[in-house]
């Protein structure tokens, strides 16, 4: 039996059937997304180097017999050396890119990508060797990378010898990382009988409501709304609001909405409430997938009669508005593969737009942080640290201020380590005098079936106590009991 608003099979977040790169995409992978062997994040045979992976073996880099630097016979290199010959890297049928005899590969224009712009800005879509040209007049030379061979161009950084260091990224946890799992045999028609009984007559059985809602996943809770109206001819949200109060009421209402509808309502409140909750806007738009953001846009337009982009544009300004408008398009690259050379070039662009420039080119930060894939950006952040010896977050704080600084920093933190970002959001919501209940409710509801186990682990390591303990000490009553259900346990 299907009910209006019932999330698609697979629940939230999107499961198989989500956003795969299409055949012919960049780079083509057998089976598409998630990444196959050799992809990023690390898979068997991937990065760090495994047998047969990167760095390439005989004939590749680091130098082998006949490779680079030139052996007997001089440069150009011998068969199998550099530059790539026919059958070079990678040697897969239909692989990336097709080799030209004796030449450097040329990259075809992007298909369905960002305006089909040439990769690296070269005419015809060619990939430049090494880095783009030196700094503009009046700029400082680029810093050199530590150790190893000198840079081929004095104005560009020189990388150390051997394979590049492994970009830092959070450990990939296998399997389901949410704290709430599907309840076996859950039936919305039987569940609404429990809710009706808990609210009927004198008084309310809050414990029954907590036990029921706290033991069902979102896709099992949402159909209760339609089942309640079908069975009793009444609106479940209306009845809950009349029976419950305060933060407990808001939490119960949030749990009965689809993820996208709840996000849309939170964005609306963040924009039209007293003042603008910039942190909420960034939190939602930087942590959701393209498919989720597009669904939020549809619901927002349907519910509130105007587009999310228009609402953001009317309520914000300057570079912060541009950042939010870019994020709400839902067009971020979602490929999992990482091109290390491209990551180095993007790190160079960020350095040239900030630390190595009088003033700051915020539009360059915007273009890279909002369009590139999350695995790629993690590699960019690592390369940036290696290149200039400063964390990207510290550079942003030195170069920017106000809302745009807060926004850029939040985007970087969320992309670099999402559980760590949400652990910090929870800590700040409960720290100091008073509790930011809206933030606490939103994070606990939206992450309870995504990465709550990871958030709990990071929270314990970072703040020296479990998230369960923190919630217990900062909330009370039925509200506390329901939040602890979403937390799933103490660490």
TrEMBL record:
SUPFAM superfamilies registered for this protein in UniProt: Annexin
UniProt KW keywords: Annexin, Calcium, Calcium/phospholipid-binding, Repeat
InterPro entries, sorted: Annexin, Annexin_repeat, Annexin_repeat_CS, Annexin_sf
UniProt xrefs under Pfam families: Annexin
GO molecular function: calcium ion binding; calcium-dependent phospholipid binding; phosphatidylserine binding
Gene Ontology annotations for the cellular component aspect, listed alphabetically: cytoplasm; nucleus; plasma membrane; vesicle membrane
Membrane-crossing segments per the record: none
Domain of life: Eukaryota
Signal sequence, start to end: none
Keyword Calcium annotated: yes
GO BP terms: cytokinetic process; phagocytosis
Region (Disordered): 1-154
Residue ranges with Pro residues bias: 1-11, 134-154
Biased amino acid composition, Gly residues: 112-133
Compositionally biased residues, Low complexity: 12-47, 55-111
Record remark on domains: A pair of annexin repeats may form one binding site for calcium and phospholipid.
Similarity comment: Belongs to the annexin family.
Name of this chain's protein: Annexin
Organism from which the protein derives: Salmo trutta
Gene from which this protein is expressed: LOC115153542
């Amino acid at each position: 039996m299907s009910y209006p608003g019932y999330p698609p099979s697979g629940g939230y977040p999107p499961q198989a059937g989500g956003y795969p790169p299409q055949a012919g995409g960049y780079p083509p992978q057998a089976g598409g997304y998630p990444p196959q062997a050799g992809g990023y994040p690390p898979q068997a045979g991937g990065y760090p180097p495994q047998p047969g992976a990167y760095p390439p073996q005989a004939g590749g880099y680091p130098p082998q017999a006949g490779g680079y630097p030139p052996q007997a016979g001089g440069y150009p290199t011998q068969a199998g050396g550099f530059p790539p010959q026919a059958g070079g890297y990678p040697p897969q049928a239909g692989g990336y890119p097709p080799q030209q005899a004796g030449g450097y590969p040329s990259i075809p224009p992007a298909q369905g990508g960002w305006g089909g712009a040439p990769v690296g800005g070269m005419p015809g879509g060619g990939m430049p060797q090494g880095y783009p040209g030196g700094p503009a007049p009046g700029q400082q030379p680029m810093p050199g990378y530590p150790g190893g061979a000198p840079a081929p161009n004095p104005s560009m950084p020189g990388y150390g010898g051997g394979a590049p260091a492994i970009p830092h990224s959070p450990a990939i946890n296998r399997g389901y990382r949410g704290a709430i799992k599907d309840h076996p045999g859950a039936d919305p028609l039987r569940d609404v009988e429990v809710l009706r009984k808990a609210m009927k007559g004198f008084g309310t059985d809050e414990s029954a409501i907590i036990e029921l809602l706290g033991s069902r996943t979102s896709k099992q809770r949402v159909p209760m709304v339609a089942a309640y109206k079908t069975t009793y001819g009444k609106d479940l949200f209306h009845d809950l609001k009349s029976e419950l109060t305060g933060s407990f009421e808001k939490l119960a209402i949030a749990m009965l909405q689809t993820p996208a509808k709840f996000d849309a309502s939170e964005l609306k409140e963040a924009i039209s409430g007293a003042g603008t909750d910039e942190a909420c806007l960034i939190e939602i738009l930087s942590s959701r997938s393209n498919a989720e953001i597009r669904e939020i846009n549809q619901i927002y337009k349907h519910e509130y009669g105007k587009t999310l982009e228009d609402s953001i544009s009317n309520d914000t300004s300057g570079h912060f508005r541009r950042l939010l408008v870019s994020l709400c398009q839902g067009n971020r690259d979602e490929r999992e593969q990482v091109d290390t050379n491209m990551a180095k070039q993007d790190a160079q662009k960020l350095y040239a737009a900030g630390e190595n420039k009088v003033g700051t080119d915020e539009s360059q930060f915007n273009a890279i942080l909002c369009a590139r894939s999350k695995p790629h950006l993690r590699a960019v952040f690592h390369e940036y640290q290696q290149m200039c010896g400063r964390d990207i977050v510290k550079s942003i704080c030195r170069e920017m201020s106000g809302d745009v600084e807060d926004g850029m920093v939040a985007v970087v933190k969320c992309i670099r380590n999402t559980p760590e970002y949400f652990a910090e959001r929870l800590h700040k919501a409960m720290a100091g005098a008073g509790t930011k209940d809206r933030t606490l409710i939103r994070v606990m509801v939206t992450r309870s079936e995504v990465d709550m186990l990871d958030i709990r682990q990071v929270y314990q390591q970072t703040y020296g106590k479990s998230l369960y303990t923190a919630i217990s000490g900062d909330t009370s009553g039925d509200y506390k009991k329901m939040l602890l259900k979403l937390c799933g346990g103490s660490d």
